[in-house]
């Protein structure tokens, strides 16, 4: 049932044959009959204009009355929207259009399962997020909590600035947990050999190509998703052209002799490694666990790559190869030992 305001009563007496007259009445709803026999309802209030076409005059009137009510009572109506609905809308309208959509959507879905998602926008307070933060810190690392807070902050920012659903951000003033120290995990030669045995030498198998992809990542600094998206047309001599990357910028990756050797051993295929990102992730965990290697992720290959390349490349060239716009981000992966630095001084 729709509420009938004064505007709705005006709609009821609007003449179907005088659309020109109704369109001049700003801040009021209007109904005009179109040449095809359908009815267009228009609402204009405080600079906001909405329009929709209906099969019958009754439907147009009901819609116009409802829209007027929503516009007149927007702050009150918006304040009753559950936070979870805003998260869902952000996932559909924003996250789904990003190249890195999958992890962001997974993060949003996890937050939507929390009690916090049931709280209405108008009732959200910084204390709600503080309670969520403290509880979440007992479940995951602080770096994960920070990523989820960053996600909620982005959602609330869009809700305030683009969707005009709120006048302030309830996350303001919240103390964020300290970021976790950057990983410095470097695989030992013994561990690499154990991984090699676990994967096997047959590159016609998914597991064999997964280990080959990890070795290739150490040589190039490429991410798992970039390796999965690599096609034969992207390889041009000693260069791999990446048109789609995590930060959205295309980049060229130089290929060392070892990187070229690793590529030459792969079965011919348009998809160079013929693996998806999800396959790389799951197969890596299996072969790693089978090898008895602890706490080593596929992404740790990127740390190893940066530390290796840092001995040979200028920092700006290194950032270009790795694909970092910010040199500070590069420092998270830079793990050259003091002994190596000392040897470079001699």
From TrEMBL:
<dbReference type="GO" id="GO:0006310">
    <property type="term" value="P:DNA recombination"/>
</dbReference>
<dbReference type="GO" id="GO:0015074">
    <property type="term" value="P:DNA integration"/>
</dbReference>
<dbReference type="InterPro" id="IPR011010">
    <property type="entry name" value="DNA_brk_join_enz"/>
</dbReference>
<keyword id="KW-0238">DNA-binding</keyword>
<feature type="domain" description="Tyr recombinase">
    <location>
        <begin position="182"/>
        <end position="346"/>
    </location>
</feature>
<dbReference type="InterPro" id="IPR050090">
    <property type="entry name" value="Tyrosine_recombinase_XerCD"/>
</dbReference>
<feature type="region of interest" description="Disordered">
    <location>
        <begin position="1"/>
        <end position="32"/>
    </location>
</feature>
<dbReference type="Pfam" id="PF00589">
    <property type="entry name" value="Phage_integrase"/>
</dbReference>
<keyword id="KW-0233">DNA recombination</keyword>
<dbReference type="GO" id="GO:0003677">
    <property type="term" value="F:DNA binding"/>
</dbReference>
<dbReference type="InterPro" id="IPR002104">
    <property type="entry name" value="Integrase_catalytic"/>
</dbReference>
<protein>
    <submittedName>
        <fullName>Integrase</fullName>
    </submittedName>
</protein>
<dbReference type="InterPro" id="IPR010998">
    <property type="entry name" value="Integrase_recombinase_N"/>
</dbReference>
<dbReference type="InterPro" id="IPR013762">
    <property type="entry name" value="Integrase-like_cat_sf"/>
</dbReference>
<keyword id="KW-0229">DNA integration</keyword>
């Amino acid at each position: 049932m729709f509420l009938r305001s004064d505007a709705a009563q005006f709609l009821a007496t609007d003449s179907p044959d005088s659309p020109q007259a109704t369109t001049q009445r700003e801040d009021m709803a209007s109904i005009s009959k179109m040449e095809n026999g359908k009815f267009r309802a228009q609402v204009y209030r405080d600079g906001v204009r909405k329009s929709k076409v209906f099969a019958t005059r009754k439907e147009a009137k009901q819609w116009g009355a409802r829209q007027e009510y929503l516009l007149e009572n927007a702050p009150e109506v918006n304040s009753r929207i559950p936070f979870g609905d805003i998260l869902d809308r952000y996932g559909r309208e924003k996250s789904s259009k990003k190249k890195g959509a999958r992890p962001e959507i997974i993060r949003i879905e996890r937050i939507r399962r929390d009690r916090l998602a049931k709280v209405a926008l108008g009732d959200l307070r910084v204390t709600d997020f503080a309670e969520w933060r403290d509880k979440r810190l007992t479940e995951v690392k602080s770096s994960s909590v920070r990523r989820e807070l960053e996600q909620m902050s982005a959602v609330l920012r869009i809700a305030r600035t683009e969707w005009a659903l709120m006048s302030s951000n309830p996350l303001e003033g919240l103390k964020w947990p300290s970021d976790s120290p950057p990983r410095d995990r470097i695989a030992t030669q013994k561990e690499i050999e154990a991984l090699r045995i676990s994967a096997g030498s047959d590159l016609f198998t998914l597991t064999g190509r997964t280990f080959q992809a990890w070795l290739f990542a150490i040589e190039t600094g490429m991410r798992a998703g970039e390796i999965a998206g690599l096609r034969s047309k992207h390889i041009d001599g000693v260069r791999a052209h990446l048109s789609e990357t995590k930060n959205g910028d295309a980049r060229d990756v130089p290929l060392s002799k070892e990187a070229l050797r690793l590529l030459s051993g792969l079965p011919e295929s348009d998809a160079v490694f013929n693996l998806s990102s999800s396959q790389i992730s799951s197969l890596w965990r299996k072969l790693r666990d089978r090898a008895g290697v602890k706490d080593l992720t596929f992404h740790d290959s990127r740390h190893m790559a940066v530390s290796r390349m840092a001995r040979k490349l200028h920092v700006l060239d290194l950032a270009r190869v790795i694909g970092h716009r910010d040199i500070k981000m590069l420092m998270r992966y830079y793990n050259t030992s003091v002994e190596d630095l000392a040897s470079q001084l001699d």
